[in-house]
Amino acid sequence: MGGSLLASSCRHLCGLLAVLLVMSFFAFCLQSVIPADPARAVAGPSAPKETVELVRKQLGLDEPIMVQYGRFLLRLARGDLGTSFRTRQPITADISRHLPATLELMAMSIFLGIVLAVGLASLQLVFPRSGAVRVALIAIGSFPIFLSALLLTFIFWFKLQMFPGSGRLTQSEFSGPTGLHIVDGLLTGHPFITLDALCHILLPSLALAFPIAVAVGRTLGGALHDVMQQPYIRTARGKGISETRLVLLHGLRNSASAPLGMLGLQIRLLFGNLLIVERIFAWPGAGHYMVESLTSSDLPAVLGVSMVFGALYIVVNIAIEVAQSIADPRIT
Question: What is the pLDDT of residues 266-287, one digit of tens each?
Answer without folding.
Answer: 998 899 899 999 999 999 999 9
